[in-house]
Write a structure and sequence with these properties.
The complex is a heterodimer. Chain A has one helix and 21 strands. By secondary structure, chain A is mostly beta strands. Chain A has an eight-stranded mixed beta sheet. In chain A, a hairpin with a 3-residue loop joins strand 20 and strand 21. Chain A starts with 34 loop residues before the first strand and ends in a 9-residue tail after the last helix. Chain B is of the alpha+beta class. Chain B is built from 20 helices and 23 strands. The chains are: A mainly beta, B alpha+beta. At the A-B interface, strand 21 of A face loops of B.
Chain lengths: 217, 697
Amino acid sequence: MSSATPSPVPSSAHGHHKRHSILPAVSQSGPKPPVQFSSSCTIADSALLTGPHTIIVSTESVIHPRARLESLGGRVTVGRRCIVHERACLGAADLQGRYHKGSPDKEGRSMGAVTLGDYVTVEVGAQVESGGTVIGEGTTVGIGTRVGAGAIVGKHCTLTANSTVAAGEVIPDYTVIYSNGLRRIDRRGVSDLKNKAQARQIDVLRRMIPSNPGKFQ
Amino acid sequence: MFGNNRLPAFHPGLTQSRIRDTTTGSGLWFPGLRSPPLPSESDPANDQLPLPITQEDLYDTPMAPFNPYTYIRCPCSELNPYTKRTPDVTAQGLSRAAQDDDDHTFDPRAARSNYSLYPLEYLSFCEDCHQIRCPRCVAEEIVCYYCPNCLFEVPSSNIRSEGSRCTRSCFQCPICIGPLAVNHVETPPDPNQLLSPDHASSSHLGSYILSCSYCNWSSTEIGIKFDKPNSIHMQLAKLRNGGETRLTAKERKERRKEQASQGGGGGGSSAGQGEEDLDTLLDMETQFANLKSFYQNQLSDANGTGKVGGDPSAALGNLGFDAPASLSRIMSLYTGSSSLHDKKSKSRPGTMREALAPSEGLQLASLDESSAITALQDFESTTGLDAYSSTASTTQLQSQAPYLGASPLHGLTRFTSSLRPIPYLLRTKRSKRCPQCRHIISKPESKVTTTRFRIRLIAGNYIPTITIKQLIIPGLTPPSMPNLPPDTIEPLKPAQFVLTFKNPIFESVRVTLATPATTPGRFPAKVTILCPQFEIDSNTDVWEEALKDNNATSSSSQSQNLSSSTGPEGSGPGGRKRAGTLRPGTAGGASLAGEELGPEVGKVWERGRNWTSIVIEVIPASLVQTAKRDGRGPIKEDEDVLEIPMFVRIEWEAEAPEDEIMPGLSSAKGGNKDGGKEKRELAYWCVLGLGRVARTL
């Protein structure tokens, strides 16, 4: 510490003693998964990718620090221009701790653990369980939301904060899940505007989050 | 409530399910929250005894952690002191109840006492009367009205004319009650329509909408857009769902005047009106306006005067029709000379007729509801929407203003697609007054954005606060059962609690406590206060105490150790002094023979700068055995909570106020040269909730 030249301390160093969060510490554990990253995606250094199956992150998507992508139940696919916020978990275990494996679809192919369409936003602390869960294009999975295993959420849906989608449930397109599980159809017709706003947000995030995809490859 | 937002969540002894039922959801406490026993459970025919309860299964519902509480009873709940003294035979029940108040102790489980018990944070104090005031007995006055969304202060004259809702741009979403924001929408101009002659008369193509950021509702769902982003309330009043315009009262009058002038000029319009289609559907507003103007015209025509309500004679003529008979009789007394004249004037109203056309307000009742029924039955097939989520719920409908654009019968809205935004209800800032002496107890600042108070007399600044904690001495307290849930008290075993009284005022107070020997209720517990009379030192500054401490230690540390607190008023310098603590090296500590560690009768437990702790001992009754024996059914919710009613009397000396009018008077009052001290006392009942009794025995 008394050296003249200041050496950059990596954020995940063990001498990092200051912790202010009351949630348990987040650390990398488990096998390192095979990955397929697009060249333009942004993966934060302290993101957590675990599991034996492949994790795919497509063009211009952003994975925030401390987001978890677990492929223990199957392959995790993140679409284009998606944003996965901190402490969100794609491919999470259900409340009993089991990782579901999705049943194969009509053509017999494996559904994979979690599939995110394009322009999907997964907010802070959301848990998308593994087991063939599909989140449609443009959907916003709200803060703290839990999407059950095998649920199929339609396009441009809005799941507000702390809502739940039961396992295996099918949510039609443009649904808003709000309050205590109430549903309604969103008729604003602002899907294009939202997509444009998401692209602008990704522009900003790419400059703010230092990307380190090499760490996972 | 009083700017002190640290109100604890008051769910005394309630289980989680009851909390969800009775609170407003924000965790606020209000009187009556402790609910009376349910009638179904006290059914005498129900002779099911409680099942034998095993050690592992002490409670059938998951118990919330119990926090000991103190509730104080406001003296306003006592009966009028005058009724106590009158030996009224007819009010025997009343006087007997008054005697009960005197003779019997306060029963915290009575249904009536439920409403007079308040936590200390809810009580205020009147300095003139030197009495506690509760939210029930305090008189409130409104200081100002403001909108909770835009924080704009509305003068009270506007309240009378425009109503108690915000008239600017503050609205709530009709679906989810969240706040609506004004958003700009860019609609590209339709090139086909620009040249058509109908473009000017098409419905409003505004460029601002209201949208909800939570449930994603927007005003485009009812077809309403606005031209300007401000004064939306005014724009909304002129729009109907779907963008059609709606006429306000002023505009209707103007239109009618135009029609009247046109009709008089045309001459043939009355004949044309007679052939008007009787089936034209009017909405409620138009029908009411048409009828009202029609009747006003009839009245003015019948009286032969041109104006309606213009000159006083017309007003008197109007009185002749709808005034009660007594009024016209009285008026005829004064104009009694021309009685013949009066009879003529009364016979004049025969020229009135009823409405004959929709323009005059006639609306034929269409009792055929088949269209409404098919609209409901075939909703899913015609619109393709889920009928359940498209039907407006009762709460949603109740918060809607009455929709006057509907036709009078069967036109009321039922679907969420026709719900309109709700303007915010204005809130008030209120000042509180003592009901007896009219002294102001609490007065907020009239500026809306400040949350401070100009005057704030709360009870917490005058009455000692009581905190309760269970006393467990490692060597002395017998060990409790291993599987006992936390915060529960074992039955039939003595348990000790430390009550800490903290004194807020700048005088030392003497406290006297009294409780009945056994608590009232179904499971009486034996209560003993080990030190019923004690003194609490004044609430001096911390620096004063530190200075005193230094003086004491400088004199001799040993003398401080040796001076044991001999009585309840353990005198001596400040600093903690505990009666009964083992002091090494004391030679013959006076009352320390035998129990050296435990609390002793007649002595305070611990003393501090402005607080004193005493010990009380309780021996709860056994729940299960008593419930089996008395045959009053199973143990109801919250019957196992151990509550002690306690009577607290506080005495202190305060400085008597100087008589300003005659400054010489105080000195003439027998020469009170020592500051004119006046003895004051305050007494009240309070209830201590100590904990739940375990259902082991």
